[in-house]
Write a structure and sequence with these properties.
Blueprint: H1 2-11, H2 43-49, H3 56-73, H4 76-92, H5 96-113, H6 116-132, H7 138-151, H8 154-170, H9 174-191
């Protein structure tokens, strides 16, 4: 009897039900989407961003030129990305008012171009900037989460919800933060 069980187990190495009939092959579960909103990043923007942390003012000047060229060509996506990345560089240099202005202009252009992944990202960046400035960031994190949910960007949604819930928890708004953080955690587990 033991020999029969061993033989059955070996014969059904790919999976069998109790009757010894082969079980269907396991179905691969597709991981949720994590979008790279910068893909494709315009090459000139990538060159300017390579200067981040080293030559911030020069990088900003390059991005301003990229923005002007893109506007002249009617390339809304590149113009929006140049503004967004200018906001990032300004935030790096603690120039919060300038960063906010760049980000808000990028929001308008992303909305115009239909660039939803980058719209979700810049909304999250505006939330982070608001938090760093002592302002209420929840509206921006919520907007980012809505956009990312609409486009199926699970990784981006997890980030926006984590930022929102973290801010709420740090400010003693536990009842609001717990469901948001639980959803962010569930999304993180999906991505593993």
């Amino acid at each position: 009897r033991l020999a029969l069980a061993v033989a059955l187990a070996l014969a059904c190495a790919t999976g069998c039900d109790r009757s010894g009939k082969s079980a269907p092959a396991p179905v691969a579960v597709k991981k949720p989407a994590t979008l790279d909103p910068w893909d494709p990043l315009p090459p000139r923007v990538a060159e300017a961003m390579a200067l981040r942390g080293k030559e911030g003012p020069r990088a900003l000047a390059l991005l301003n030129g990229i923005w002007a060229d893109a506007v002249a060509k009617g390339d809304v996506r590149t113009a929006a990305i140049a503004l967004h990345r200018s906001g990032d560089l300004s935030a790096d240099q603690l120039q919060k008012a300038e960063a906010r202005a760049f980000y808000l202009r990028a929001v308008a252009l992303y909305q115009l171009s239909g660039e939803r992944a980058l719209l979700g990202l810049v909304a999250n960046d505006l939330g982070l900037l608001a938090r760093a400035s002592g302002d209420e960031p929840i509206a921006w994190f919520d907007y980012s989460a809505r956009v990312r949910r609409e486009i199926g960007d699970v990784g981006g949604l997890r980030t926006a919800l984590g930022n929102q819930g973290g801010f709420q928890a740090l400010n003693g708004r536990y009842a609001e933060s717990i469901p948001v953080l639980n959803e962010a955690l569930a999304l993180a587990e999906q991505l593993e």
